[in-house]
């Protein structure tokens, strides 16, 4: 019936001066005031964003320099850097993506494409929306309590004294791996649980946007269900899935609460696996093996620590602000990538 | 036509994939179960040699005592009220900030803004929503308290602590404003245009249309978004842990420091007391309280959305 229920945008045809009656005049004035209040409230949010960014950049001026990116933690704020946090966050987000993307997208595919309307499926769907509202720190408790026994088990297994029998033919001695508490693996597993609901919900939305005519055409040509999903539906939904997944994973980058709970380092003077530059990934790739089991710190955790430094002269404020600038620049680059994918996809296929 | 044998292979293949994907989906239920089991088995009843929190501290003390001094041995007091008051004080201030700002932005974007203006307003609000919590904590501690609150309250002769609930509440309010704005805007925009047109035809001003037709029609969704934002504010951690400080005081004075439930949990996890000490176990009791409160608010929000939804053709 109505042409565009999606938009309430209508240019008012009644102008302020046309009312002769005092009552009409008052009502129009009221309307105008209301409009300006709403506009003010909207732009106030933007003003706050501007003030926030300005104050952070302003505070960072004393410390932000190339050496901030390449230095380790130091009690001397002039030399303190964020290198360990950058590498920690990099590995954490990489592993989190490895865990959460297959499982998250897989769940979304099941719920949208394969699930019949059974009791169990309804339980999963209701549970999902509630899980999305659980505070991240509660996942931290879960990681702290449930994943630590797993690490103790691994610790016992990889202490260099065990060997496995391979089919009774020969014995393989398990290598000695140093497995720390609060390592990257626990962090990534916990963080995957934190972002899983958003990954699933974003992927579900992308899958839902694929018109059912595509599925029907594919099925009518004799493709099986899985062939339809794998060769038609997922490629068509891929830009949407990618955008949603990138945005969810970038959330893991700024999240500190679950990491604090599982007990990551707040002060770290070495990078995970001892890898301090991208070059070492090529020259010494075996180091990567120990990365998941190494202690680490992440950018938001370091920022928390620097902000809380009880320092009468306030010398760590600039360090914390510089850390925030680095974190925000990385986040901005990731979000820009997601937006470019979204814009490209919007220009491409149209149904 | 595929032969009988290939068809069977296909079918097996499909069943295998189906089950794999089902396991992925079921993992989320497993997560919920794991959260509940972990919280209960450490707070209420612990199997084996471990002693759960409520086996050492009575539920009565937890709910009636007004002191929170999580110490091992003598002198430990475990009354949840100071943490609850801190949490709700921050969440209340956050609501005072985010409800008008979020609703105003939602009404402006759906009813007033030109589509082109809307197109860039929305992504900017998304940016605000994407800024990490620690950043807001820093902003509260290093900007809002020293540069806004202290001079402002100095004028009326009041003193503001370095750590205070007011600054924490303000930044949490800023954080959840985009949530209210986008959720409310969605429901406001789904109010059919015919309602607006009818109201305009009857001589309504745009204020009448917004405030007396559109907002009442979308009220259930708007209230649901307020509740979701409130629950988010209750569970907000890092900003509050930085800005509100770490003193669990039973107070409603927002100019003083306080400790929230989440703030305490961060504090307890960084402490160096033994893993099964009572001060450490109290974390689980606080965790279960937090979990129950946020879940309760979220369920209430969903119920309001379903129960009072206006359905239009």
How would you describe the oligomerization state of the chains in this entry? heterodimer
List segments of chain A where confidence is low: pLDDT < 50 over at least 5 consecutive residues: 1-8
Q: Remind me, CATH topology of the largest domain in chain B?
A: MetI-like fold
Helix content of chain A: 55-70%
Structural class of chain A: mainly alpha
Spatial ordering of strands, largest sheet of chain B: 1-2
Q: SS-based structural class of chain B?
A: mainly alpha
Rg calc of chain A: 26 Å
CATH topology of chain A: MetI-like fold
Query: How many domain modules of chain A?
Result: 1
Order of helices and strands of chain B: HHHEEHHHHHHHHHH
Give the mean pLDDT of chain B: 90
Strand content of chain A: under 5%
Would you kindly provide a written description of the structure presented here, covering whatever features stand out?
The complex is a heterodimer of chains A (351) and B (313). Chain A has twelve helices and two strands. Chain A is mainly alpha-helical. Chain A has a single domain, classed as MetI-like fold, CATH 1.10.3720. The longest helix of chain A is centred in the first third of the chain and has 39 residues. Chain A is flat and about 95 Å long. Chain B folds into two domains: 40 residues; 231 residues, MetI-like (MetI-like fold, Orthogonal Bundle). In chain B, 73% of the residues lie in helices and 1% in strands. Chain B has 13 helices and two strands. Chain B has a two-stranded antiparallel sheet. In chain B, β1 and β2 form a beta hairpin. The radius of gyration of chain B is 25 Å and the shape is flat. The mean pLDDT of chain B is 90. At the A-B interface, α1, α3, α4, α5 and α6 of A face α1, α4, α5, α6 and α7 of B.
């Amino acid at each position: 019936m109505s042409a565009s229920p999606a938009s309430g945008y209508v240019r008012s045809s009644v102008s302020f001066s046309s009312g002769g009656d005092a009552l009409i005049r008052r009502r129009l004035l009221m309307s105008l005031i209301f409009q300006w209040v709403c506009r003010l409230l909207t732009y106030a949010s933007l003003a706050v964003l501007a003030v926030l960014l300005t104050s952070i950049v302003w505070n960072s001026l004393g410390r932000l320099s190339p050496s901030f990116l390449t230095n380790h933690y130091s009690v001397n704020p002039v030399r303190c850097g964020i290198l360990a946090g950058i590498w920690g966050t990099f590995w954490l987000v990489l592993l989190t993506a490895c865990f959460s993307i297959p499982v998250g997208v897989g769940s979304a595919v099941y719920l949208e494409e394969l699930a019949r309307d059974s009791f169990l499926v309804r339980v999963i769907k209701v549970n999902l929306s509630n899980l999305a509202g659980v505070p991240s720190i509660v996942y931290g408790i879960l990681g702290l309590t449930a994943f630590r026994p797993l690490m103790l088990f691994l610790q016992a297994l990889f202490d260099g004294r065990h060997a496995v029998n391979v089919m009774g033919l020969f014995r393989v001695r398990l290598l000695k791996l140093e497995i720390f508490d609060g390592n990257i693996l626990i962090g990534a597993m916990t963080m995957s649980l934190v972002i899983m609901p958003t990954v699933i919900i974003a992927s579900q939305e992308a899958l839902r946007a694929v018109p059912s005519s595509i599925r029907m055409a594919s099925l009518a040509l004799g493709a099986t269900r899985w062939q339809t999903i794998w060769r038609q539906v997922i490629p068509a939904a891929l830009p949407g899935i990618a955008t949603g997944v990138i945005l969810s994973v970038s959330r893991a980058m700024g999240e500190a609460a679950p990491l604090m709970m599982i007990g990551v380092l707040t002060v770290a003077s070495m990078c995970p696996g001892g890898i301090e530059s991208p070059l070492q990934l090529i020259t010494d790739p075996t180091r990567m093996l120990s990365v998941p089991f190494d202690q680490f710190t992440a950018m938001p955790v370091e920022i928390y620590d620097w902000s809380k430094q009880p320092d009468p002269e306030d010398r760590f404020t600039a360090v914390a602000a510089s850390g925030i600038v680095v974190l925000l620049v990385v986040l901005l680059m990731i979000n820009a990538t997601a937006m470019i994918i979204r814009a490209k996809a919007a220009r491409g296929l149209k149904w | 036509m595929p032969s009988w044998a290939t068809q069977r292979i296909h079918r097996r293949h499909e069943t295998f994939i189906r089950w794999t994907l089902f396991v992925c989906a079921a993992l989320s239920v497993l997560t919920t179960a794991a959260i509940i089991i972990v919280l209960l088995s450490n707070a209420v009843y612990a199997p084996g040699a471990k002693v759960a929190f409520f086996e050492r501290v009575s539920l009565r003390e937890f709910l009636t005592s007004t002191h929170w001094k999580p110490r091992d041995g003598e002198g430990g007091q475990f009354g949840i009220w100071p943490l609850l008051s801190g949490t709700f004080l921050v969440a209340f201030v956050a609501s005072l900030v985010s409800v008008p700002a979020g609703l105003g932005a939602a009404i402006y974007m759906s009813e007033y803004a030109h589509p082109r203006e809307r197109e860039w307003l929305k992504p900017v609000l998304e940016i605000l929503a994407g800024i990490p919590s620690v950043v807001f904590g820093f902003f509260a501690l290093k900007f809002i308290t020293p540069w806004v609150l202290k001079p402002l309250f100095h004028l009326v002769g009041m003193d503001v602590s370095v750590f205070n609930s007011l600054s924490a509440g303000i930044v949490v309010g800023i954080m959840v404003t985009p949530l209210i704005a986008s959720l409310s805007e969605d429901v406001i925009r789904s109010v059919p245009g015919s309602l607006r047109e009818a109201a305009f035809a009857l001589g309504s001003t745009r204020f009448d249309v917004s405030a007396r037709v559109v907002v009442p029609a979308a009220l259930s969704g708007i209230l649901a978004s307020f509740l979701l934002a409130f629950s988010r504010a209750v569970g907000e951690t890092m900003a509050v842990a930085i800005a509100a400080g770490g003193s669990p005081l039973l107070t409603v004075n927002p100019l003083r420091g306080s400790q929230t439930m989440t703030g305490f949990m961060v504090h307890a996890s960084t402490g160096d007391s033994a893993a099964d000490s009572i001060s450490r176990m109290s974390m689980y009791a606080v965790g279960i309280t937090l979990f129950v409160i946020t879940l309760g608010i979220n369920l209430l929000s969903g119920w309001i959305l379903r129960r009072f939804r206006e359905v239009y053709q």
